[in-house]
Design goal:
Layout (H helix, E strand, L loop, with lengths): L5 E3 L1 H9 L4 E7 L5 H12 L4 E4 L1 H6 L8 E5 L7 H10 L5 E6 L4 H13 L4 E5 L8 H6 L9 E4 L2 H10 L3 E5 L16 E6 L7 H4 L4 E3 L12 H16 L6
Parallel strand pairs: 2-3, 5-6, 5-9, 6-7, 8-9, 8-10
Antiparallel strand pairs: 1-4, 2-4
Length: 249
């Protein structure tokens, strides 16, 4: 993680948030108390900023022992507004291709997905504000800089994003083994959002209930699942295969 992307100290973090700095995540020392810490929690809640309560050893490893019990990571990107992105794509008469990441928490997996997304013409990546991988130095490095080229949208809840996309005429497809359909049964030529689940639990059951379609990857080995970034790449390149005649390349 790059030190230039960090803020140390409770007061410094509060001031950064209030000045409009794009904070990606805040790490707070477990069992911390005091008026200033309570003020920080109040500001985090007001601005709906993701935070984790961690042992002091975690904070010490982030690079500065004068952290006062709190360290924030600054996002190297400006997050896109989902509403505006959808409207601009539809007005341009494009067939949007979105990725929704439901609980993907590993920064390197996130970066690898962003890199593949950029290479396959994805119009936007949607993540939840809580529980998602941070956009940090590892993400930037693993994405090979693609993080600066693909719009990334943060939403309060993945389910809300699914409903919004559906209302905009964009089909939602969840990658899950809990179906008899494979990705080769899906029509990727229409406006579509592909939902990839977390590394350990997959797509949330509450999300699976509301998606338009479900699809799985055929598996012939003894291992029952692929790394999420690899699985995402397989879905995206099936979309490319189907859309390639319309891409003018």
């Amino acid at each position: 993680m790059e030190k230039a992307q960090q803020i140390f100290g409770i007061r410094a973090i509060i001031e950064a948030i209030q000045s409009g700095t794009e904070i990606d995540k805040v790490f707070v020392q477990k069992d911390s108390q005091g008026d200033l810490m309570r003020e920080l929690f109040k500001v985090l809640k007001q601005h709906n900023i993701n935070y984790s309560q961690v042992p002091v050893e975690k904070l010490n490893r982030l690079g500065n022992r004068n952290h006062q019990g709190a360290v924030a990571t600054i996002s190297p990107i400006t997050f896109a507004n989902l509403d505006n992105l959808i409207v601009s794509l539809l007005e341009a008469e494009k067939k949007p291709l979105f990725i929704i990441l439901d609980g993907v928490s590993d920064a390197r997996n996130f970066g690898a997905i962003i890199r593949t997304a950029e290479c396959t013409g994805v119009n936007g990546i949607i993540i939840a504000k809580q529980g998602s991988a941070p956009v940090n130095g590892d993400t930037v490095k693993t994405s090979a800089g693609a993080v600066f080229n693909v719009p990334i949208c943060k939403v309060d809840h993945v389910k809300d994003a699914v409903f919004h996309l559906q209302a905009s005429g964009i089909k939602t497809v969840a990658a899950t083994e809990k179906t008899n359909h494979t990705l080769y049964d899906i029509n990727f030529k229409e406006p579509i959002a592909i939902i990839m689940g977390s590394e350990d639990k997959g797509v949330n059951p509450s999300v699976l209930k509301i998606v338009d379609e479900k699809a799985k990857l055929p598996m012939f080995g003894t291992i029952s699942s692929l790394n999420v970034s690899v699985a995402c790449g397989a879905f995206l390149y099936e979309a490319v295969r189907q859309r390639i005649s319309e891409l003018n390349i």
